[in-house]
Amino acid sequence: MMCRKRTILIVILLIAGHTMNAQVRVVAALCDNRVNPVGINPRDLFFSWEMHSPKEAVMQSAYQLVVASSKAKLMAGKFDVFNTDVVKSDQSIQVRYSGKALQSAQTYFWKVRVWDTDKKASDWSAPQQFTTGIVTPADWKNARWIGYEEMPNSKRVVPFVHLRMKAGDPRIFKNARSPLLRKEFTTTRNVAKALLFISGLGHYEASLNGQRIGNAFLSPGWTSYDKTILYNTYDITGQLRPGSNAIGVILGNGFYSISQERYVKGTGTFGNPKLIAMLKITYADGRTEYVISDQSWKATPSPITFNTIYGGEDYDARLEQKGWNMAGFADKTWNDAVLMTAPTGKLLPEIDYPVRLLDSLSARKTTKVGPNTVVYDFGQNCSGIPRIRVRGKAGQTLKIIPAELLHADGTVNQADGVTPHSYSYTLKGDGEEIWQPRFSYFAVRYVQVDGVRVDSDASSQLPLVTDLTVLHNRNAAPQNGTFVCSNELFNRIYTLTDWAIKSNLQSYITDNPQREKLSWQGEQNFMRTAINYTYNVYNLYRSLIQNMTDAQHENGLVPDIAPEYIQFEGPFVDSPEWGTTAILDSWFLVRFYGDTSVIRKTYPMMTRYADFLESRAVDNLLLYGLGDWLDIGKVTPIGLTATAYYYHSITALSHMAELIAKPDDATRYRALATRIKTAFNKKFFNPDTKLYATGSQTAMAMPLSLDLVEETDRTAVLNKLVTNIQSIDAHRLTAGDVGNRYLIKALSENGHPETLFTITNRDDVPGYGYLLKHGATALVETWDGKSSQNQLAMGHILEWFYEGIAGIAQQENSVAFRHLKLRPQPVGDLTWAKGSFHSPYGWVKTSWTKADGRFSCQVDIPVNTRATVYLPAKAGSKIYKNKIIVRDCAFEGDTARLELGSGNYVLTAE
């Protein structure tokens, strides 16, 4: 009897467990597109969540989202801040907060549950939290900007001088000293919460009781400091001690102040380094105290004797003061902190992921190139800094020089005019010493160290390097995708491009990590889709939009770089292919992330820029700009690419006007786009030859991809493009960084991926394979391998790898990948490929193989989405879904089309 009861109980538990597993689950919950974010804007936040279900074709039918002022209240069901109740909606991304006003500097707790297609409820998600930033200036509690020494406003040089000031220029200034600042304070009761809000210009590194606060590098991010200054928020509750505590901060120059002692792209200064900070301490009894930056802090010069973002950094370890950032340190010789003139920029929370040191590279080869000189080869070009371990005597100095290339004699070659960039370290003579720069970085594959022992000669008196590594710095945005296939060259191209992307993802998207480090808008305009398939850049692009808004000129121009630290001239300040990112970034956030709120925020900036372009147009044409930058042979006329981007951006603007209920504007911009299209075809299209302009790859591909070709001419223009590639170009690449993306799209999306495969699958002519063949380890600035050895601008091929070969894209009218388009392209010699992409709704995955007339593809489709899947198959082929034959699929040409809901499927075409 007991055995029977036990059997019944087991069966009941198994049934119950099966029922629980069959229900939809919330597997990820985000606020402001981040997990448990701190320092968010309490007046503008949103929630998103991802779901999983073992069932197929599951959609959300309702949700309930709740917010409480404490975790205890949240778990007890006391939702004292916000409760949506049950909302009948399938919306699971960009759910805007609409509760009562949130307070500054507070932590809130939230969770969500959902109902599936069958109206079955999930369990609550795991409890989440978010911490608000500072809303008004008064919330800073009278914190002041402080520093070591003030710079008179008369010495300010903004915008910066391009390159160096001429000898004798009275504006020339010395490198601003990098100060230490400290403050001791006492906690008197049990601490429940401690939040630090801090900004240091140009950059800062903070510590509490001798321990680093956070793990960011070069914080805060780069901005137009007269308009916007970013601050960071840290929960340091666990670092506080009962009784005495000490905050320590070291400041660096960054882009805030750049002197010209070494290499510079621009010289200028907003002022000397300065700090603002507020520590909010909430005790267990509910009382609150504040520690603010003011004249009660102490300041002194740091051991960093030189630092610029372009020239490098010097450090004298003999100047270290042990325990300077700990309680009880004797700081009587230090000065009182100086109250600095407050910058004019508005303090805003940094909403993007921080830049961090995320990889460590070890040397693959070490070569003696001189009596006291060693060169380390790390085998990979990346943005980075050296970290050195060394033993020696106090006062000995070694020089560290990073570079991308080598001279014939094996010494490092800082080519492309970026010399000198270097670091120096002076030893304190205290056993093994470890050092790395704090406030500068470079593009580095090789590191040369001068003034060291280079062999095992124990009689040498020079310092001995015991270890040298390179630490790679990049934006800590989560990885968004993966790709691999059976073609090893394509895998190497992917890696080559990925290193260039992540080396140039900093607090904005740089053009390169050595020569300029500026935010040229072309990189983000041409590469945003390719970048987004590899890294989640939603928060980054929101920051980029703020930079463009700040940089906009009075006449509406959005310059080619933002922040506009240097004001260039001619097309280097105004090239529409670069500037139209001011419109297309917002359209990107709408299309890829479903964020329509961004339109209202950026609409004034976008329309002012559109008006500027219209004022510069001649008969609806923009016949100026940088053109198809770095194309091979300069074969595309100036003006074609500018006008194509003009049409593209005005069309996007008309769509955005519709989305925010501005029908008159939408009509006006549609009409303008029509006039631009008519003028473009009149100017550049030859109806007899069916050629655009010179018939170059860019001239033909851009009109095809941007809907500038009249429907009656599309087939003829496409055929001309393909014929010219085959017969005239001999499958050689000629498009530059403006047009290459559209060449890829024109071929892959219009039935000619085999042609694209042939162009890409070679290394004998300038192109991706050529760069690899000649030793590149990151994507190079030009197709022939010259100039910067680490530049992401030509990396558009990743779009094809994801959307074409792996087959992961979204349908034309889809938003945020709600309706997927899964259409793998098994071209050339490819026999298999795998791809994954983290969409706003969750991971999309494909994995296909091709062999012996059988094509098999595994696809993962997230809950709350659907997919149209295209399999390569001729009419009459047998199509199987999870080993069951499909009777109702449609055949279109050489493809079979299936409509699928969420789930995991194995699809086979025989």
Automatic annotation (TrEMBL):
**Which reaction is recorded as catalysed by this protein?**
Hydrolysis of terminal non-reducing alpha-L-rhamnose residues in alpha-L-rhamnosides
A Pfam family matched in the record: Bac_rhamnosid_N
Q: Where is the signal peptide?
A: 1-24
Q: Does the keyword Chloroplast apply?
A: no
Ranges where the Bacterial alpha-L-rhamnosidase N-terminal domain occurs: 190-357
What domain of life does the native source organism fall in? Bacteria
User: In the Enzyme Commission scheme, what number(s) does this protein have?
Assistant: 3.2.1.40
Q: Is DNA-binding included in the keywords of this UniProt record?
A: no
Indicate what this protein is called per its UniProt record: alpha-L-rhamnosidase
Name the species this protein comes from.
Larkinella insperata
